[in-house]
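Quick log. Single chain, no ligands specified.
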Amino acid sequence: MTSFTEAVEGLATDGRLPDGQGLATGGRLPDREGLATDGRLPDGEGPFPAVLIRTPYDRRRHHAELRGWARHGFAAMAQDVRGRHASPGEWHPYENEAADGALTARWIRRQPWSDGRVVAVGASYAAHCAVALALDAPEDARPDAVIAAVPALGAAETAREPSGVERLAARAGWWAAHGDRHDSDEDALADALVKDPGLLAHLPLTDLPDRLGRSLPSWPGLWRHHGRGLLAARAEHAGMPLLAVGGHHDHFTDDTLALWRHWGGPSRLLLGPWGHRLVAAPGTDARPAHRVNLGELYARWARLALAGGLAPVRGGAVGLGGSPLWVPAATQGETRPQNVRLLHGASFTADPERPVSSEELTVPTGRTPDRCLFATPPLPRPLDVIGTAEVRVRATADTRSADWAARLVAVGPGGVAERLAVGIVRRADPPGRAADFTVELGPLARRLPAGTRLRLEIAGHHFPAHARNPHTGDDPVTATRLLASRREVDPERVALHLPVLRSRPTPTDPVQEILR
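-> predicted structure:
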């Protein structure tokens, strides 16, 4: 295999590669300032299909991945996006990727080692780069296939829930680590929280950079983005194949599913009981059968996609957490109401000075209720749940703005509590007037064992995962004043709906489903 490093901008180069093995770093083309790009060519004469990975997380982290692609016969490139690591320029997340990716794709297609076919590959922000190249670049620069894993599709998609509520902790952590800087400090927020445990509670939230002790000029502007789903909505015009990969425990599961469902070309979905890094944390609902060799699968799928060997359909596989099964991606449970009964808190106080914690599942006792609590009887038999769960509520707030957070928790026969799903909506109903509304809990794919009790919590906050509604009508990001909100929930008008399979699902092989 042959390796090289190029600097790409305008990308006028003759494509000559140095001899030798091993990945060179730090190289620049004479008299050209460009985006730092490392590459690996397969053994043999070529020409070869190419894989392009564009990332803000340091192209050098992908050297092993490049070698893997090359072993499968692909010319593999990893590029630092503009303004990150070795690439010059200013770093503006989600702004330059289609244009810069188009320049790079055209450069690849001009090289003597390229057969003209390009697969855009990426995870998280790099998935945005791949999808933006496919949907927003000129026709001649678009890839021939896309692999998008745990896609962080845009500023609004990452910063807000589908309902518009702010994802505070996750965005604060990402911006502290990567925002407005060439390099990264993955522990920046964690280190700051050690020094100041109340860091995310300080108001206004726009002052976070001052608390972190460094400049973050892009932080306030992040929260001006409200238009979720714009990129995914354009996916219906895509004609090339897509492989979308995600995890049930990832922040971006909804966006992974939306991309797969909207994609106009052949699309495949692999959704497992994994987190954002596509691995299962200890003690989660993943089983050994949910381990998939993604590198091998990506290469096989890419070969089929480029050869036109995929059926022109939407397919794939979903791992059923809590079981050893994979099921076809089209599997969907039938929405059924569950028998929930009120435990306490039909009247409660949502106080942003003492918000319900998103990090703690223990329900406090012996004080004024801070949430409404329901529970089901123990399940008499295992329950397979696949699809979107929701809570229907009739409730009242005495403030003109109110968030309603619903959290579904599974309590096992041994009493261990595990969060299953969370949903949150923001309402602006007239104070004191009862309103009927639905809180979507997002997609589930889970087998719940017999003896499990489901606990449903309805609260006014879910902090620090989500910014606190100040109840003043002010924007939670810029608010400086907080008010408590009195809540009333009608227990007779609360309904938990789960997508339940009527019979045991038919298992499938995830690799076969992806490669159909």
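Residues 289 and 352 are 43 Å apart (CA to CA).
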